[in-house]
Specification:
Blueprint: H1 2-10, E1 16-20, H2 28-40, E2 44-46, H3 57-67, E3 70-74, H4 91-105, E4 111-116, H5 122-125, E5 135-136, H6 141-151, H7 161-182, H8 190-207, H9 209-212
Parallel strand pairs: 1-2, 1-3, 3-4, 4-5
Helix pairs in contact: 1-3, 2-6, 2-7, 2-8, 3-4, 7-8
């Protein structure tokens, strides 16, 4: 079932992007910024939240990474959580490792990008990728949009930060309505993500000149 769902969702992988981010309320605005920003580049964002089925989570994650042309990994929240016992979040660096491995040995081209809130912290937290400069967003949605324009310099569409910011503002308003319509407080589940993705693509076509064909 999960494999059939993925085939229906993807088609060509040249415009698909896997988002590896924390799923928590405090990250919501950056989450929306990733969806809005990637849509502004004509890319189709994907997360593990959108796929249901009995297949175990690790297999779903790796299948998503393999089917995506790009992956975006935000390590800014690799920190001790507040619930006892205090434990760092290892999921995101682990998923980055899967993407790095696939980029090395996979049959299809895969580009991965690392994002952080602080410029030099990754040299301490993940020294194995020393030499790879993270894209720093400072924990701000606007900073993330700037970081995306610096990361995606070789794509067919080159939206401005102003255009991406306009998409984000419209998407934030849409997110409020999605929560009301679905009677949920979370945007990280399958249906809210799907609705956000569809809305972001439509907004991007209206806001980005190269996507609208004007």
């Amino acid at each position: 079932m999960a494999k059939r769902q993925l085939r229906r969702k993807f088609g060509s992988s040249s415009k698909t992007a896997f988002i590896n981010v924390p799923y928590d309320k405090g990250y919501e605005e950056l989450y929306l910024a990733f969806i809005a920003g990637l849509s502004g580049f004509g890319l189709i964002p994907h997360t593990t939240a959108e796929i249901s089925g009995s297949e175990r989570r690790l297999d779903r994650i790796f299948r998503l990474i393999r089917r995506c042309r790009y992956s975006f990994h935000d390590l800014s929240r690799v920190e001790l959580d507040r619930k006892p016992p205090p434990t760092p979040r290892f999921n995101m660096p682990f998923e980055l490792g899967l993407a790095v491995a696939w980029a090395k040995v996979g049959k299809h081209k895969h580009e991965w990008f690392v994002f952080e809130a602080q410029r030099h912290r990754i040299k301490k937290s993940l020294s194995d990728i020393d030499g790879t400069d993270p894209h720093v967003h400072g924990g701000q949605a606007g900073g993330l949009l700037v970081a995306l324009t610096n990361a995606l310099t070789r794509t067919g569409h080159r939206p401005t930060v102003r255009e991406l910011a306009a998409i984000l503002e419209d998407l934030k308003k849409t997110a409020v309505e999605i929560k009301k319509d679905l009677q949920t407080d979370s945007l990280f589940d399958a249906r809210p993500f799907h609705d956000l993705m569809v809305a972001a693509r439509l907004i991007a076509k209206d806001r980005v000149t190269s996507l609208s064909g004007r």
